[in-house]
Amino acid sequence: xxxxxxxxxxxxxxxxxxxxxxxxxxxxxxxxxxxxxxxxxxxxxxxxxxxxxxxxxxxxxxxxxxxxxxxxxxxxxxxxxxxxxxxxxxxxxxxxxxxxxxxxxxxxxxxxxxxxxxxxxxxxxxxxxxxxxxxxxxxxxxxxxxxxxxxxxxxxxxxxxxxxxxxxxxxxxxxxxxxxxxxxxxxxxxxxxxxxxxxxxxxxxxxxxxxxxxxxxxxxxxxxxxxxxxxxxxxxxxxxxxxxxxxxxxxxxxxxxxxxxxxxxxxxxxxxxxxxxxxxxxxxxxxxxxxxxxxxxxxxxxxxxxxxxxxxxxxxxxxxxxxxxxxxxxxxxxxxxxxxxxxxxxxxxxxxxxxxxxxxxxxxxxxxxxxx
Length: 372
Known about the structure:
By secondary structure, the chain is an alpha+beta fold.
């Protein structure tokens, strides 16, 4: 019985269908007439019925808020009597659904019709155990939902920052050029001057459109069931096709596994680095290298044989380095920009698998993104 319940609760979230199937299991084992799982805590005037197999006559005879207060009780297992619409007294047993100090609600079962005596000791112990398993399942479901919410807020913050650092700045620059063109026309400047500003506008629009396409490709990025290596191969092939650069992939991650969120951050850093190679490096060759050592330290290296950069401040101003550094910080790692072995630029990310998604780091970084 317990094995069946544990398997049912662990194989799927505690939805209405799962919980009603669980109540049917209880009915079959204990011989009770029906049951309900209600959310609420002692002191609440009204509970929320999450799942139920109770008879229609009992459902329609419940009087709010009195009967809800009786079911929730004082946070302890207890029995109670409820009168149905025909004047018959039905005996119910309420068991708190509690995980540690937090009570989510109650598991209520009704004795078989005509029975007036209480449940046996083994039946009460079984109900307590089942209620505890339900509470644990609800707790885990809430933790998963909270983790997804934090990840969603974090990714939205990163998207907002990427829009600000790329497209928003380009549009601001274009707005300035429009003002210049208006003044040139108002002053009656010669045709060559106006055409010069128009040419700047055209190039700026082309650049903004290119940035928009790259951002859309970035936002649509997903790691399929094929895994990180397949996504890496697709990314390298994409950037190889859009340029004449010979880009090689050396993936030596082996059996090292990182979380799906970490994979997304790694992929975004690689994409940003390759975007800089194709747009600014004037390179003919580039390499994407990934490795995970026995201690669980991951190294990601993107390097080219291009013209290189003057210093990291140039990267900070123009090449999306702030976003890459934020993603590296989420991974608990470090991002370094330097010279490659072939004279171009190298982007090196290092992080420990054990540090990824440590409790507190994701939330702290997210708050900084939201309020920074």
